[in-house]
Write a structure and sequence with these properties.
Length: 140
């Protein structure tokens, strides 16, 4: 008896797996800067601000600013220290508007401060510093 050889059946052709879709590109990082003491200081990424809420940032020299983004996307910076209590809490205040002017109400005694000028809307003799804010263009 002679051994017989059986040829193996060819393997079925397998189509290559489709390429995975490319991950979406990350949005460009936009840094916000505040002008204080004659210099611009980078404080945070624009994406870190939530409309209707504030954040505090520490500047060189130890001063604090409260940054806010309103629901229209405009960004404001004022001093974070509540002049009525001395507490650094304005970044935790409630945003609102009066006569079309955006303000933050202190979370402690509820005095309102104009976000564009820092003027207290409840006592004309009191104000907090206001600071220009600009966005650095995204890196190319």
């Amino acid at each position: 008896m002679t051994p017989t050889t059986t040829a193996a059946a060819p393997a079925p052709a397998v189509a290559p797996a489709p390429a995975a879709p490319a991950a979406p590109a990350a949005p460009p990082v936009v840094r916000l800067r505040v002008r204080a003491g004659g210099h611009w200081h980078a404080v945070c990424d624009d994406a870190e601000l939530t409309a209707g809420r504030g954040v505090a940032a520490l500047l060189p020299g130890g001063s604090q600013v409260a940054l806010f983004k309103d629901r229209a996307g405009r960004t404001y910076a004022i001093g974070n220290r509540d002049p009525f209590t001395g507490a650094y809490v304005l970044s935790r205040g409630l945003l609102g508007s009066a006569d079309g002017r955006p303000f933050v109400a202190s979370p402690l005694l509820k005095q309102r401060f104009d976000l564009a000028t820092g003027r207290c809307l409840d006592d004309d003799s009191v104000s907090v510093p206001s600071y220009p804010v600009e966005a650095d263009p995204p890196a190319a």
